[in-house]
Structure formats: C-alpha cells, structure tokens
Amino acid sequence: MRLLECNNVGVFRLTKDLIGENIPQYAILSHTWGEDVGEVTFEDLIKGTGESKAGYQKIRFCGSQATRDGLQYFWVDTCCIDKSSSAELQEAINSMFHWYRNAAKCYVYLSDVSRSAFDPSDEFSRPSWKLAFRKSRWFTRGWTLQELVAPASVEFFSKDWEKLGNKKSLEQLIHEITRIPVKALQGSPLSDFSITERMSWADKRETTRKEDMAYSLLGIFDVYMPLIYGEGRDKALARLREETLKGIKHEVPSVASSFSHATASDEDLLKLLRSAAQAAFNSHDKQHDPLCLPETRVEVLQQITAWADGRDERCIFLLSGMAGTGKSTIARTIARKYYDQNHLGASFFFSRGGGDVSNASKFFTSIAVQLAKKSLALNRYICEAIAKNSDITSQALRDQWNQLIFQPLSRIEAELVLSPLIFVIDALDECEGDEDIRAILQLFTEAKGLADIQLRVFITSRPESPIRLGFRDTPWIVYHDLVLHNVSPTIIDQDISIFLRHMFEKIKGEFEDLSEDWPGDEKISYLVKKASGLFIYAATVCRFIKDNEERSPQELLNLVMEGSEEQPHSEIPHRLATQALDKIYIQILQHSFKRVENKEKIAKSFRWIVGSITILFDPLSTLVLAKLLSEQKDTVTLRLRHLHSVLNIPKDQDHPVRLLHPSFRDFLLDRERCRDQHFWIDEKKAHESLAESCLRLMSNSLRSDICCLRAPGTLAREVENSKIEQCLSADLQYACRYWVQHLQRSESQLFDNDHVHKFLRKHFLHWLEALSLSGSMSDSVGMMKALQSMVPDKNSHLYNMVYDATRFILYNRSIIEEAPLQLYSAALIFAPKTSIVREQFLDQTPQWICRLPEVQKAWSSTVQTLEGHSNWVSAVAFSPDGRLLASASRDSTIRLWDASTGASRGTLEGHSSRVNAVAFSPDGQLLASASYDDTVRLWDASTGAPRGVLSTNGRIHNLSFSNDGSYIKTERGLLGLNYLQGSIDQPQSDFPSA
Predict the structure, then answer these.
(1) Listed residue (136, 70, 97, 117) closest to 223, CA to CA
(2) What are phi and psi of 616, to 5 degrees?
(3) Where is the Heterokaryon incompatibility domain (predicted)?
(4) Under CATH, to which class is 284-485 assigned?
(5) For the segment 828-881, what is each residue's pLDDT rounded down to a tens digit?
(6) Could you read off the pLDDT of 396-414 as tens digits, one per residue?
C-alpha cells in the first residue's frame, strides 16, 4: 500500500510500498471519478505533471483536511496505485475494503452537492443541499458501497469543500437513501447480515466496467479472487458467488438466488412477473373455443376492423351486450384475425371464478409478458422496467400500466412494431372489484397519448354499472361503443340460423340414420325465434342434442320443442329474454335425472358438487374437487356425466372443469329462473359448506415445515414448484387461499370456540407458512380484516385473537413472504410479550433457540410504516370512507395507499415541485393536491387519473373541499369547480393575480 505524505509546506510525495505494521495512520478519499483525462494518475505524480489536472484539487483538499485532522498521510485511489502493474492492481482491489476499514478518516467528496444553495422561502428553513445529497451520484456507484460501510469515521464534503456532516450525524438520511440498516452503518460486523441482505445493498448501483460490479463487492463478502477483465459481468458475479458459497452452508440457497438475480437474463426477469397463463385467447384451455362462422356477424366485425385499421382517434372500442349474445366469440375472432396479421399486442379473457383471470392482480403483468414477445425492443424496455423495480408485480395498477406498458410503448419506434397494435380484453365485467374495472378503463384512455404507436383496445362486457361508471368521465372522442342487443334483430336471427344449420350438419355427419333435410327449415326457424337473439341458447341446444349417447338427436330435439307454447312466467324484459334459455337449462338438468331412483338424494349430491363448481373462485379438476369435497372421484364423475352441454369436462381428469357459459351460473343461483328446486343452488349455503370443507382439509393437512425445508433461512422463491405441489396439493392450496372468501360470501357470523377459532388457535402459523410458499401471502391481511368483520362481539376472545393476528402479519409480512420458516423463529420470538399469537405458539419455536430476546410488552401504536417516497412527507389525508390514504411529499409526488392493508394503490406524478397539501372531496371521488409549482391538481381518487390543473398565482399550503364539493377552500381564496356531465370542465379560480 502506497500513501501520500504531506510535508509542512503542503507538498505531497508518494511513500514506498508499505506492508503490515509499518503502515502509519492515514486518511482516505472517497469520490466519483470524472473524465479519465482529468484525474491525476500514479504516473503523473512520478513525473510531476498532475497539478494542472482538475482532479488535483481533490488531492490537495484531502491532504489539507488530513493535516487539519492531525494526519500526515492520506490515500487517493486515482494516484496511489500503479495500474500498469496487473499484480499491484489485483492486490489493491482485493485489499481495498480493508484499506478503507483501517483508515482513521474517510473524506467523501460530493461534486454534485453544494451547501451554498439555500431556499430562503422554505418555511422549515431546510437547506436544499439535503435534496441534492439524496440524489447524489455517489450513492449510485458500485465502489462507493464499501467506501461507505467499511470506515468507522466517514465525513461528507460538498463540492465547495464545506463539511456537510458525518456518517453518524447523517445516519438516518443515509439509511433512507441506501436502505442499508443503521446497525451496518454504525459498524456492526457484516457477518451479522445475511448474504442476501448484503447483496441487496448493491441492487441499484452501477460500475463503469461491467466486471467491477462483482469486484467492488469482494470486501463486502470477505472473499479474495483474481481479476479477469473481459470476462463480463455475469461470469464475474458467478465466480464471486462460488467464492462466497465456500464454507457457508446455512445460506447456500439464499446466496445462490441473490447472485442469480443479479445476473438475470431477460427470460429470468420476465419470470418475475406473475402472469395468468390461461388469459390469452389462444391458451391451451381455450383452444377449442369457437370463432364466428363465415358470413356471420359480418356487420359487427366490419365496424370493429374499420375502427382498428382506420385513423379513428378513439382508442377504445367497447362492445357490450347481454349474457349469451356472442361477445366472447366476436372477441376471439378479432384476436385471431390480428394475431395472424401480427398486429395483436395482447389479449386477456376474464372469467368469473377463473382464479387468475377472475381479477386484475395479474392483468397488466400478463399483458406485459405477451407484449415482450412481440418485439426485441419491447422485450428490452419491459425487462429494463422489471430490473429497476422487481417488486412491480405487487404494486398498483397505475404503476404497472405506466412502467410495464405505457413507457415501453412510448419509447419504441413505430417501425419496430406493426401499427396498429391491438389489445383484446373480453368480459371485463367478470373482473372482481368495481374499482379495478374503473381503473383499467381510465388507464386505457391514456393510450391516446402514445405518439408513435397506434394502440387500439377492444373490450367486451355486459352493460354493467361499473363499466358505465368507468366511462363516466371519459370524453366520447376517446371511445367508441356498440351495443350488441341493439343490432337489428333480423341480422342477428340470420346469423343464429347460419350457426344452427352449421351445427346440425356436423350432427348429421355423426348419425347416419338422420335424413338429408333434417331437422328442416321449420324447426330451425322455430329455434331461431326461441333464441331471442341469444347465441348461447342455440349453442346449448346443439350441445345437448349432440353430446347425449342414450337418446337419438331427433328424440332430444323433440324434447327441446316440447312445452314451447307455454305462456311467459315473467313480465320483466330481461327475464323474457332469458326464458327460452332457462327452459333449455331445466330440460338438460331434468333429463340427466330422468332414470334415477332416489331423486332427492341425487339432487342433494348435484347441489353439493355442481353447486361447488358454480361458486368456486378458481376452477378445479374432478380429482382435486373430489378431494376438496371429501367425495369419491367416481361419484363426482358420475354426477357430471350428463352435463357436457353446460359444463366443459375435459377427458384429462387433471384439467379443470369449467362452466361453458356464465349464464348457467346466473341461472342456477337465481331462484326465480331455476324453478325446479331440485337444482336451485342456495349461494350462501353453498359457500358455507365449501368453507367448512376448506377448514376441515386444512386442519387435517397443515403442519409446521410442511415442505421439509429445515433451514429457517430458506427463501420461498428458492423452493422448487414441484416440491410445493407435492407437499401442498392443489386442493389444499385452494383451501388456504379461499376459505375466508367462502365464509364471507356465506354471510356467517363467528363466535368464541367455533370452528374458525379452533382452527386459528392450532394452525394459524401453519396457514401463513402455506400462503407464503404458494405465493399468496399478500392476501393474508385482507383475509384477516374480513374475519374481523364477521365477529359481532368486539370484546370476544376470537376478535382479540384475529386483531392480534392481523398486527402480527402487518409487522412480519415481508419476512414471512420471503422466508416462511422465520414464522417460528424471528417473527414469533420478537412479537410482544402479551401477543396472543406469541403466547399460543411459543412452544413451536426451534429447539436451537435457547434464550429468548427481551421484547416490548405490547404492540406499539404504530400499526405499520408505509415506505415509498424519496423525500419528506409533507401532508396526509384519509378518504371520507377511511379506505384510502393519500400522502404528499417533497419528492413532487402523491401516493395513494390502502389504509387497511398498507398496499400501494398508485403514485400520482405531475407536479414539478414539492407537494404541500392534499384533500379528498366529500364524496371521496376527487383528490386535490397543492404544490410549490403554483398549481392545484385534481385526480380521480379511485384510478389516479388526472382530472384538471389550475394555476394559482402563488403557493398554497392548505386546502379543503366545501361540504358540497363545488369548490376548494385555500388560504388564498376559493377555487370553483364546474361540473359538466359528471366531469370537471375548466376549473375556475377566484384567486387574484400575484
């Protein structure tokens, strides 16, 4: 190690190469390099030619500061290493962590931070250098990580050579910037921190040379390895991993995962996005779903393709219609057309009760995965977004849309992707959560802002209120709508007639005894009339006739025709529209029971098995369903044998059973429509019975360390899926994920010592472990909140336990999600002494924990800490219903949070300076924010969509809505809001000019 020696007259000279105990006390410089030609090198000092270089000022400063601190020697990386000697460079890089650790003082020179900058109008008199400090390039470089962590004494200096503070005085600020634990900054041994945690400190840092991303971490992991410049980043990190793994057994899986993440390929990055495999129109599960027949739906398809291919400014096409009018078939046809033309960007077909495709949790991530396969450029931009924010899957829809979809499409050049680019979204009304539906619609309207890509979003839906509300504030110039059941009845009847003739031709091909003209024009015309515009009626009739092996097609057709002259039993218009469909459903069910002897017993079995299929939140195979219901597989198979015309029952019993159409679910659950009470499903009772089955299965199957991982530090993501599926069967995973939802839908009430209370007292931790392993831990807080709402006695033992369990999850969620077995060690032993969960399960702590740590007596008043802003939070506001929390920050953003779970609901960006105040409107639909950029912005509180901007001619520090929401009150005056058809139109201000 060479040092620079400073004599009494401020002249520097290099010492000889010092070794071991001969090294005197010294100071050391940490900085970010400028241009190479501007830095003083070892050769410059030898030749005496470095004084004219810009970097010499840093050397002079370091020497002067060292002298002031009573130190004669100091070290600077640019000039104290002879880089022409590969041996010396190898030794220096492998020793550098120790050199920084042994330094008496470390001086950090921040060339992009100035203390002289000061904002006199800041009412808190906060020096603005702290904002520059947060954003300093020094915190983003790979080498400076060890230069921060290793030395005991670190002092920070501005570009003007003024001292800003030291590692101790700026401890909290540095922690917020780097996420390095305070204990690590205070000098705790790095061995106290897991390899995984130390690796995370370098996540967002960069180095100029790719290999240095590994070499800069040698000291952090206390390893030595030779340098091979030219080997590349991935190989260097792989070697670092191998060296780190030597002699470390308990953390091997964790270490391997951490390093593999650091070297992730694009394919690996895309795997981080949780997507729904069955979402696309051409997924394996949908491969046999029909398209529109030739010469059918001609007018509708022409309208859609003219919109998609033309220059119509409207970026959204909404096709709405009653259940059974053929929306999904049209959507599949459009998707297939543009897929074949290479213009389909993505498709997502929602399905109520379809698991991943029944909600929006994997909506934008699934679209992003499909988009990434569209072009190499899109793949690169999407993967860059994932690399920058690997947690994007769990973030708000707005953030997912912006980072994974909108920004990549904004960056791509038009010639790299065929334009127009089509998204096909089917059955949006079947997405759970009205707020998510509204958010999706509002976000898609932003597609109009894409400059180089013409993005077209085709959506189908029933005409449900969430859809209408989602477009309430959307100008007509953004979306085009077409109502299917308003299309000319003559055209629809003609299309249904073509469909029936096509299907009957196929049936004739399978039955040789049918006449050439079967079934005849008269019967086809009659069936067209009975269909009343519903394609699902025609399709169901054809399946019923085709898929029955016990009776001939003619007999079954006659059965369909029987009773057709009955008078309508309802005068409600939509009931009349479905009456023929209800009739065919009843006939199918009655026919399946025609030859049974004990009809009541069989009907009860039907309601149990088919009723469960109807209300499942995720479709299951016959094998899995039988296990969940504690039924024999043959019993389930027998009960479904004659229901192929209403259920999709795969030959492969490992594939899920699905309803062929949601109208069958609507029929079974509606007592007015399903008039044969043998088949009517009491939805509440069905949910209650299924919840009991889930609880019984979990009670019999769950246990500690169910996957036999043994090592408490094993991460959930390291466990092979095959291992999880072997130990957590599909029926058990379903029970763990959905038992609370079934209880909630049953509208049950819970009491002390009931089946739920007994389950929680015995299996609460086992259940959380299973959720973590199956990737569903994020649902746990919402499930516990739902349980709380079902306990009427707020003073009961059950309520207290559920409340305590909720606090336990909120406090430990991140560690449980990452390492499930930490439930029984860290999470349990650090819970407060009076925690019910701790008291109940303390006997399950590992035997190797000999002494319990001292912990607080009770949960603190802090329920949870919400992290995400990069600067101070200046204001917060709760929505009127208490469900949302808005936080305003000096980082110029507003964040929305779920007040119950703490989950991020989105980041609102638009202000160019810090945000001082936020307020919700009385109805909770609007959020107003005031900023130092002299504007007030209005946002849709549920979707985060911008709703208006007003210049205020001055800064606003406080604002609130009037009781009727017609204007905003501020200390500078009133801000009037004009409402036009439910939307804000040109907000008016009563502010005087400044």
Answers:
(1) 97
(2) -55, 145
(3) 26-117
(4) alpha beta
(5) 999 999 999 999 999 998 888 888 888 889 998 888 888 888 888 999 999 999
(6) 899 999 999 999 999 887 5
